[in-house]
Design goal:
Layout lengths: L2 E3 L6 E3 L4 E6 L3 H4 L4 H4 L11 H13 L3 E7 L10 H5 L10 E2 L2 E2 L22 E4 L10 H8 L3 E7 L1 H14 L3 E10 L3 H16 L3 E3 L1 H10 L1
Parallel strand pairs: 3-4, 3-8, 4-7, 8-9, 9-10
Antiparallel strand pairs: 1-2, 5-6
Helix pairs in contact: 3-8, 6-7
Bound molecules: dicarbonimidic diamide.
Dicarbonimidic diamide binds next to helix 6.
C-alpha cells in the first residue's frame, strides 16, 4: 500500500513492503569516547542525539516486520582490505589497526567495531561490513536489497556528511529512493550536518528526500 510521508523537497511516497531501514555505522568506534571518531579529534557527544530517534524508528520497523539492515565500517584483522592511504590519513598516534581502549581500532570483531547496545542488530537483520565510506563499495548490499525486493531506503546513522551521504549518493545512482531522517543522522560538525542535509534535498531532491522520525513514525503507526 502506498504510504506518504511529509518530507522535503516534497512528499516521499513509498511501499512499506519494498522499503528498508538502513542504519549506517552506529558503532562504538564512532559514537563512544575512546573510539576512532574521538582519535580523530572529534567530540563524540555530538552524535548522541541521533541514537534515541533511530531506536524508535528501528522499533517501528521491527513491529511492522519491515526490512532492517545495519552497516559497520571497518577492516579485516589482517588489514588487507584497508588502503594504506586510509590508514595513514590524519597522522594519528593511535589509528586504524592499532590497539585502543576498545580493542584494535576499526577492526572487525573488536569491541569498538561493534554496534552500540541500544541499536544492537537482531540475528535476522543483515549487517553489511564495509571497508569504505559508501555501503555499496566492495559489499554485497546491492545483492541483498535486490533479493529482498527493496526499492526505497530510510536512512539513519553517522556521520551525515561522510558515510551517510556517500551511501545515499551510491543508492540514488542505483535507482533507490532515499529518505534521510535528519534527527536520526549526526555529524561531529553542526555546519556539515546542515550542509549535507541541504545538499541531499536541493535541486528537487537531487540525491533524495529529508524528513524527521516523528513524521515517519506518524505514518507508520497508521500504515
Ligand atoms: C567516518 C563514517 N566519518 N561512518 N565514517 O569516517 O561516517
Amino acid at each position: 500500500m502506498e504510504t506518504i510521508v511529509k518530507a522535503q523537497p516534497y512528499e516521499f511516497r513509498f511501499e512499506p513492503a519494498s522499503t528498508a531501514l538502513l542504519i549506517i555505522d552506529m558503532q562504538r568506534d564512532f559514537v563512544l569516547p575512546g573510539g576512532f571518531g574521538e582519535m580523530l579529534g572529534n567530540n563524540v557527544a555530538l552524535l548522541k542525539p541521533a541514537i534515541e530517534p533511530t531506536r524508535q524508528v528501528l522499533e517501528a520497523f521491527r513491529r511492522k516486520h519491515l526490512a532492517v539492515l545495519h552497516t559497520r565500517e571497518g577492516h579485516r584483522p589482517d588489514m588487507s582490505d584497508c588502503p594504506p592511504t586510509k590508514r595513514a590519513r590524519g597522522r594519528l598516534k593511535i589509528g586504524i589497526g592499532d590497539q585502543g581502549p576498545m580493542g584494535r581500532v576499526l577492526i572487525r570483531g573488536e569491541r569498538g567495531h561493534g554496534i552500540i547496545e541500544r541499536l544492537e542488530p537482531l540475528l535476522s537483520e543483515p549487517v553489511i561490513d564495509k571497508p569504505g565510506k559508501g555501503a555499496f563499495f566492495a559489499t554485497d548490499l546491492e545483492l541483498i536489497l535486490k533479493n529482498l525486493g527493496i526499492r526505497s531506503l530510510v536512512v539513519a546513522g553517522v556521520t551525515t556528511e561522510v558515510c551517510v551521504q556517500t551511501t545515499v549518493r551510491e543508492a540514488n545512482d542505483r535507482g533507490y529512493e532515499c529518505l534521510v531522517l535528519e534527527d536520526c543522522v549526526a555529524s561531529y560538525f553542526p555546519e556539515f550536518q546542515r550542509a549535507a542535509i541541504d545538499m541531499i534535498k536541493a535541486q528537487g531532491g537531487i540525491v533524495g528526500w529529508v524528513s524527521t522520525s516523528d513524521e515517519l513514525l506518524k505514518v507508520l503507526a497508521g500504515a
